[in-house]
DNA sequence: CTGAAAGCGCTAACAT
DNA sequence: ATGTTAGCGCTTTCAG
């Protein structure tokens, strides 16, 4: 179990000093060459430095450099649930973009707002990051205090907030498209599964959805609230179909919720789309459900990537702005929507 | 678009020096108090320092400390696919444990071995991390060279490797349990969907599976290889059922693959479990399929957490060892297994 | 019990 | 064209 010395924390590697000694120049000269390319350094010296650096496979010590430059080269991401493919996809887009921009990515999965606040404090106040992408709701007092009391460049992704810029998609358009799809198929009794009180993104989808319903002269749509999970969708569908005049078609505002709704329909002996039509949001998972979900695409990865771009802009002092990704939602017809029964 | 100064890279915060000045002592004294509790510092001085630190909400500057101590307080994770719930769950377990141990987590999603190697080099040679969890296969020359040429404490998770310690689960037992389940239900024509050539984890599950088949006197089982994805399982089931003597029951070595197989069965008009039984691995998703998957649990989060514990041990110089999580696989009966047809 | 000094590896302003 | 100096914020001997 025990055995001798702690490992050297990290393998010993060449430093500027080593190169300087080998070549016979000062470390500052080496630094110049290795950073700004060494304009204003004699070609011969430069070459010698470059050669030696290559020979010893020199890599700058990120920490040392960062301490000096006051930049960490790291971006943080706060998200509520790593196993939710919607977040995972968004994060992937963000990470790819961050990597291209030369940043590493620090991820913190935070279940609730209290944990969000403490993760925020940790990352920010220890100065581990240059900026932060926030994919969690941040309307709690703790969180607002954490951010305002300790500001760092940050952008919200897939959420709007009073305390920062945000990158979102056109949720309203998704909602409209969903309603239109169902109405075009002939339905008049529509239902919505969402998380209206908690999530601004759900609220916007609902608004778009309801707008089109009203325009079509549909008086009312039934609503069921659901936590953003398969289980949430499952329960919500039960409550929607348990009423006295159940809808013949529903819009599930999120893919997970849609999958849960499908499962609940199956349990109730409701056949989709014969007895009930379902339109949801798209993703890999939606292709392999039974029946495959008719769904609306959302540019999640693009949203994540764009968030990083905006964040970079903020870090570099450019004026931040709210952005709505201008890729319009698109309907992918699969098998969960059909005409109303009878 | 443009506007004035770059933001201060990170908000100006109190340093040891500030506290020292305020209290009228030397920074080294402050450091002592704030670290080892200030044993051997006069109670009065200590209190003054503590008070002031609290007043200004002092947080150590991680980079500066790390530069001095040669530890980063960060762990890296290399994984192939963030949207794969199996990895996401493992990573979650690792992150939670890392947080408890006071580490932050740096994640890199690397699609192939070449990218793995370069991510490795980046994290390690810039000395951004104290240790690394590797959830990708690392048998390529690039990767081996990267690791051996630039060693850092590392542990493989859910993969075994010649170039490091690993934390895995008892895959063989899962395979055995799957076979037993199917045989107990009366099946004699069994199929296996896996990724035997590429994944040691799949290989072990297959070995366990086949072992039990042989013990039961079943001469042969059909095999289909599949990339670890829903699509992979989808295609594999088609190829399995397209043969001249298709199995009446299959084991899908991974949840995603199982979901894909289910979808393919539906497309072929094969009813599960009436015409075909399916046993797979478990996870949130498996509950909401149609029909819900009978599946074998795997302690993924525990595996991730344990990997961090082992990694910590290595970082602290203790003898590393291979560990197999000793939580036995468990069968969750749902609806995808039944007796053979006829 | 407390302070002075050195240095982690790097960058950048200034001097030569 | 190159070197000197200073310092980022912290920890850690070693003296006093």
Strand order of the largest sheet of chain A: 2-1-3-4-5-11
Largest sheet of chain A: 6 strands, parallel
Unreliable sequence segments of chain A: 1-11
Using only CA atoms, what is the Rg of chain A?
Answer: 26 Å
- Dominant shape of chain A: elongated
Tally of alpha and pi helices of chain A: 13
N-to-C terminal Cα separation of chain A, in Å? 72 Å
Oligomer class? homodimer
Task: Kindly state the number of beta strands of chain A.
Answer: 12
- Proportion in helices of chain A: 40-55%
Q: How many domains would you count in the coordinates of chain A?
A: 3
The ordered H/E elements of chain A are HHHHEHEHEHEEHEHEHEHEHEHEE
CATH architecture title of the largest domain in chain A? 3-Layer(aba) Sandwich
The CATH topology of the largest domain in chain A comes to Rossmann fold
| Biggest chain-to-chain interface with counts | A-B, 74 and 74 residues
The class by helix and strand makeup of chain A works out as: alpha/beta
Mean pLDDT of chain A: 92
CATH top level class name of the largest domain in chain A: Alpha Beta
CATH superfamily of the largest domain in chain A: Response regulator
């Amino acid at each position: 179990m025990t055995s001798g010395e702690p490992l050297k924390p990290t393998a010993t590697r060449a430093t500027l000093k080593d190169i300087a000694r080998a070549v016979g120049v000062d470390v500052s000269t080496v630094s110049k060459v290795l950073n700004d390319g060494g304009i204003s350094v004699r070609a011969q010296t430069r070459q010698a430095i470059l050669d030696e650096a290559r020979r010893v496979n020199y890599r700058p010590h990120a920490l040392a450099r960062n301490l000096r430059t006051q930049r960490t080269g790291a971006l943080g991401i706060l998200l509520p649930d790593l196993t939710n493919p919607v977040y995972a996809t968004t994060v992937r887009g963000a990470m790819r973009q961050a990597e291209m921009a030369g940043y590493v990515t620090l991820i913190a999965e935070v279940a609730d707002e209290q944990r969000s606040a403490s993760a925020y404090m940790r990352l920010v106040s220890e100065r581990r990051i240059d900026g932060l992408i926030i994919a969690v709701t941040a309307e709690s007092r703790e969180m607002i205090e954490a951010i305002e009391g300790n500001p760092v460049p940050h952008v919200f992704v897939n959420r709007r907030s009073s305390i920062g810029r945000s990158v979102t998609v056109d949720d309203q358009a998704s909602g409209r498209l969903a309603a239109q799809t169902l109405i075009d198929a002939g339905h008049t009794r529509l239902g919505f599964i969402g998380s209206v009180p908690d999530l601004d993104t759900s609220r916007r989808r609902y608004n778009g959805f309801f707008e089109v319903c009203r325009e079509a002269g549909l008086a009312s749509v039934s609503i069921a609230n659901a936590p953003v999970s398969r289980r949430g969708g499952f329960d919500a569908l039960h409550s929607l179909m348990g009423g006295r005049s159940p809808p013949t078609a529903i819009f599930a505002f999120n893919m997970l919720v849609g999958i849960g709704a499908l499962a609940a329909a199956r349990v109730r002996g409701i056949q989709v789309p014969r007895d009930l039509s379902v339109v949801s949001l798209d993703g890999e998972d939606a292709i392999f459900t039974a029946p495959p979900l008719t769904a609306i695409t959302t540019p999640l990865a693009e949203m994540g990537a764009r968030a990083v771009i905006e964040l970079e802009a903020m870090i570099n002092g450019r004026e931040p702005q709210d952005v709505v990704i201008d890729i319009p939602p698109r309907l992918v017809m699969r098998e969960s929507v059909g005409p109303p029964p009878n």
